[in-house]
Fold this protein.
Amino acid sequence: MDGTTSLVLTARGLEKKLKNLKLSAFSQVTYRLIHAKYYQTSLSAIGSMKFAGRYNPKEQYEVLYLADSPITALQEVNAVFRSNAQLFPVKDIPRILLSIECQLSNILDLTDEAIVKELGTSFQELTGSWVLHSQSSLPPTQLLGKACFENGAIEALKVPSAQDARAFNLAVFPDRLQINSKIRVFDDSGFIDAVIEGY
């Protein structure tokens, strides 16, 4: 999808549609790659606030982006590229791969075709380019992310990976975690002790 494509998703009606959609629990290990120098703030999402992301406009709210596998995490930061036959590594800055244990109560599953259809969007729109838009309007994924954040009950979005159609990412709203929800770096050594808990 390029910047001239007619967008399916609009802000109109999203609030009402989100109220009627079923949310689900999520309990799984996910993965995150961070610059080695940021290991002491391994669950910080301040970078997404500062620079924007696929599901969050710049300087509005934080989103913690996680991946379903180490390979997906590498692909999302362009540290590896996949061909039909193999993976190609890229020379890159030092990074740390984190295993993130997630216990979430209310996620919106945007890998579910029925939910995507109900919202009036498409997998193409969710995985297409989101940066080629005018400053006066948000790309559709940021419109959706903003509506989900403002909904208040949605803790995270399970979304299709733009890098691999077989994979998914988790876009977590740290400020929306509910009681009994938790995100924690798995590290039995105690070197990295990082957790975000709902309240």
Remarks:
- The radius of gyration is 17 Å.
- The chain has one domain: 14-197.
